[in-house]
Write a structure and sequence with these properties.
- With about 325 residues, the chain is α/β, with parallel strands linked by helices.
- The chain folds into 2 domains: about 15-210, P-loop containing nucleotide triphosphate hydrolases (Rossmann fold, 3-Layer(aba) Sandwich), CATH 3.40.50.300; about 215-320.
- About 40% of the residues lie in helices and about 15% in strands.
- The strands form 4 sheets. A 5-stranded parallel sheet has the order 4-7-10-3-11, with helices on both faces. A two-stranded antiparallel sheet has the order 1-2.
- Strand 1 (about 15-20) and strand 2 form a beta hairpin.
- The protein is elongated.
């Protein structure tokens, strides 16, 4: 596998159709260190463990990689396994519907003769079994692995190392061994809610997504809104001050996803204000347009998007008194 990713495939938002269904992908702007980490994982055929603040773009990274590799064939070669506290490793591989088969046996259904008809594959199993696309690997996102119990990562070692798994229920039919039909680039995200086992970490490459500086934030915001640069700069100064000087490490700091939502509302009501048809506006629209005046005073409009606790909001209110 000698494919080198540039990280530039999703510098603009993309929309396309697959089997009549619309697929929309937001723009994604990785820095050079992140692009290099992905390419190292590709060359070494190792999982890439991504950490960073919630909302910093860990999940969307996997989508961006899958799009650059497969373009509009991406939905067939991208697999998203979202981990919950109750998730077991086996669920990502396969599930056997024994009750359904028992029902069909009693109903004398012909398909009940073979257990194969009652095996369904999880996202990890599908990623391993989906044939490759022109020599390019499938992409599997194991999302928020730290939500599962402590044994979960170690239960994946065989499958991640050897790209093979077994379905014991199929042993009587001689179909229990499942070998990968393609390479799989595994992206694993964690919000650091708990430590991961050392044996698991040894098998992964690691990258931490730092929160972007103002220059990068400007680049990101300009992909989503058409505001004047002066407004963007003023709003980003307020946002940066909030994150760096007002909120502490114990507070839930707003992420890039919340920043984008915030700017979308600034953009929306800036455009509405420019229309100058006040007689057609209802009271809610008037209030929200009036929120924009706070920017000129160094205050935060639409604070509900950025503040997640009463304690954090109190800090901002005290700062502005």
């Amino acid at each position: 596998m000698d494919k080198i990713l540039t990280g530039k495939a999703l510098l603009e938002a993309q929309t396309f159709e697959v089997d009549g269904q619309k697929v929309s992908l937001d723009a994604y702007l990785p820095d050079n260190d992140l692009v290099d980490a992905v390419n190292l994982a590709l060359q070494l055929k190792r999982p890439l463990l991504i950490m960073g603040e919630p909302g910093c773009g860990k999940t969307r990274l996997a989508e961006a990689i899958a799009y650059e590799l497969h373009n509009e064939k991406m939905p067939m070669h991208f697999f998203h396994w979202y981990i919950k506290s109750t998730t077991k490793a086996k669920e990502g591989l396969y599930q056997y519907d024994a009750l359904r088969r028992l029902y069909d046996v009693n109903a004398q259904e012909p398909k009940a003769k073979s257990i194969v008809n009652y095996i369904s594959y999880g996202d990890l199993g599908k990623a391993l079994l989906e044939p490759e696309n022109e020599g390019l690997p499938n992409v599997l996102l194991i999302d928020e692995i730290d939500k599962a119990d402590i044994d979960f990562p170690n239960d994946l070692l065989l499958e991640l190392d050897q790209k093979v798994f077994y379905v014991p229920e199929l042993a009587p039919e001689g179909k229990d061994k499942h070998e990968a039909k393609s390479e799989v680039l595994v992206i694993i995200t964690s919000n650091q809610e708990k430590e991961l086992p050392a044996a698991f970490l040894r098998r992964c490459l690691y990258h931490y997504i730092e929160f972007p500086k103002k220059e990068k934030l400007t680049e990101i915001v300009e992909k989503y809104v058409s505001l004047d640069k002066e407004i963007i700069s003023k709003a980003l100064d307020i946002f940066t001050n909030l994150r760096e000087d007002i909120l502490s490490e114990s507070d839930k700091k707003p992420s890039t996803s919340e920043l984008i939502d915030w700017f979308k509302m600034i953009d929306r009501y800036t455009k509405l204000k420019a229309e100058k048809n006040e007689e057609k506006r209802n009271d809610v629209e008037k209030r929200l347009i009036a929120e924009l005046d706070k920017l000129d005073k160094g205050k935060i409009p639409f604070y509900q998007i950025l503040f997640k606790t009463k304690e954090a909001l109190n800090k901002r209110e005290n700062e502005q008194e």
